[in-house]
Amino acid sequence: MSDKKTFGRVKGQTKSQSIISDDLLSPYVIQVDEYSYTVMDSTKPTSGFMGSFTQLSSAVNKIVQYKIASKKETFSLNEFLTQYSETKEKIQNALTL
């Protein structure tokens, strides 16, 4: 007889989570659970996973990157860094990181 090892949660078990939703983050939200911060695209409810992070600041940095990338513009390095800094500062001020 083989001993089947199982990993993870028991079927049907869910972990508790909160959601950070703000106009500055839109269209992204951050799901917070006991282990991580998960960035989700709220416009894609079934496939909106954008990344999972152990620190809130890393999740915010990823949202800033996505927000700039979604503009689909061509930037000089200086323009990109300015946009990145301004967007990140707005979000950080709201979240008081």
SSE blueprint and pairings:
Elements: E1 17-20, E2 28-33, E3 37-41, E4 49-53, H1 56-69, H2 77-95
Antiparallel strand pairs: 1-2, 2-3, 3-4
Considering the chains and any ligands shown, give keywords for the structure:
34% helix; 97 residues; 4 strands
Instruction: Report the uncertain regions.
Output: none
Major beta-sheet overview = 4 strands, antiparallel
Q: How far is the N terminus from the C terminus?
A: 54 Å
What value does the average pLDDT take?
A: 83
Write the H/E string, N to C: EEEEHH
C-alpha Rg (nearest Å): 17 Å
Q: Summarize the amount of helix as a percent range.
A: 25-40%
- Summing up helix and strand content along with how strands pair, one would put the structural category as alpha+beta
Strand content: 15-25%
Q: If helices are DSSP runs of H or I spanning 4 or more residues, what is the number of helices?
A: 2
- The geometry reads as elongated
DSSP strand count = 4
Largest beta sheet: strand ordering: 1-2-3-4
